[in-house]
Amino acid sequence: MPSVSSREPIPTETVVVAPPAPVRRRSTTWVRIVLILIGAALILSFPTIAPNPYILSAGVVILNYAVLSTGWNFMGGFTGYISLGHAAYFGLGAYGTGLLIKYLALPGFVAWILATVLVAVVAIPIGIAALRVRGASFVIVSIAFVLIMLLVFQSWRDVTGGSEGLNVPRPFPGMLRPDHHRIFFYLFVLILAIALLTWWIIDRSKFGTALKSIREDEDKAQSLGVPTTRYKLIAYILSAFFVALGGGLYALWFGDLDPIFQFSILIGSYMVLMALLGGVRNLFGPLLGAVVVGVALEYFKLEFGDTQFHLIATGILLGIVVLFMPDGVIPSVMSLLRRKSDQASIREITAAELLEQNESRRATVPASTRTADASTEERSS
Question: Is 182 part of a structural domain of the chain?
């Protein structure tokens, strides 16, 4: 029986190759950071490069849409519950701010924050009742809620002004309109940044993982011990809070409130469309959707006046998204780029290239290992 020392050495060849996945992930991270910085610079510089006050006001409207769609995405993106009635919280935030200023003589921004908190409190019992159902039933309940709010605020003339609307005093009465737009532009940017940061933190937390498990399979998540009812309610309240925050700031900026507009199902539909267009599972999906849809809406309203052509264009856009990009623009583009990268990394290799790789690998093997390989070959021959 041969001893350990007499055994033939086993030739080993160690070739250290850098794994492509981490390198690709690192480069992708840098690309994302650069794109985020460029986007932030463009947004912050928009008030200075806007050619006229109308374009600047359109930018404020688009930012308002971005806040609303990002706020909606706390519920729709994380849990998969599609609500068309979030316009109710937009209207409650706006009217709550205006009514607190009118009847309690509160400063504008104090009334704004207080109204947002009150709307979040109101969302608790509404969420408890609405989240008992799922799917199409939840959509119907959300639509019923916004229609009820429309009837209440339209009929309660003595308090809300009814169909005549409500006038909200501007917080900066002596300021020129362009400067007024500029200040509120940056305020909307601040709210949007807070909403995006909150969404990003939740997305990387255990709470976010539990919400996404509800989105994928709620029954299975519940069987695994996830408190689905409580987590859905928290997401619903957060969503209502940020939508109301956008509604209250809109009231301070625009000044004139109309219940038909504030509690319009179209506003809720725009939130859904913007989030779906950009991608509900992506941090910047609702923002991208708000830019695309917001610019299109403002353009069609400017070109076609009071016609309903912008509604037709919105419906066509929604149909295109559902048919060709069901996951949204950002996920679809990222999937396409990833597929092209994978195809480029797989190519045919010639015999000469293969021989050259073998020679380079052989050159990296230590001399002792090559001697052992040679002696092994002689012994085997």
Answer: yes
pLDDT in tens, 91-109: 999 999 999 999 999 999 9
257 bridge partner residues: 166
Taking the C-alpha atoms of residue 140 and residue 96, their distance in angstroms, rounded to an integer, is 25
Residue-wise DSSP of 209-243? HHHHHHHH-HHHHHHTT--HHHHHHHHHHHHHHHH
Mean local confidence (pLDDT), 106-126? 96
CA within 13 Å, CB half, 295: 5
Residue 43 forms part of a structural domain: no
Q: What letter represents residue 201's amino acid?
A: I
CA–CA gap between residue 146 and residue 151 (Å, rounded): 9
Tokens of 274: 């913007």
Could you give the CA distance from residue 83 to residue 86 in angstroms, rounded to a whole number? 6
Q: Report phi then psi at 23, rounded to 5.
A: -65, -45
The closest alpha carbon to 78, from 283, 354, 341, belongs to 283
- Which helix (H) or strand (E) element contains residue 96? helix 87-104
Give how far the C-alpha of residue 86 lies from the chain's centroid of Cα atoms, to the nearest Å: 16
What does pTM read for this prediction?
0.80
* Nearest one of 286, 283, 279 to 331, comparing CA atoms: 279
Is it the case that residue 59 has pLDDT exceeding 80?
yes
* Alpha-carbon separation of residue 165 from 78, 99, 161, 194, 215 (angstroms): 35, 11, 5, 30, 39
Residues in the chain: 381
Q: In this structure, what are the phi and psi dihedrals at residue 138, rounded to the nearest 5 degrees? A: -65, -40
Q: Alpha carbon of 295 to those of 91, 277, 302: distances in Å?
A: 22, 14, 11
Q: How confident is the prediction for the chain on average, in pLDDT?
A: 83
Positive or negative, the CA dihedral 131, 132, 135, 139 is negative
Mean pLDDT, to the nearest integer, of 26-54? 86
Residue 191: domain span? 54-264
Q: Which pair of structure tokens corresponds to residue 350?
A: 């010639």
Q: How many domains does the chain have?
A: 1
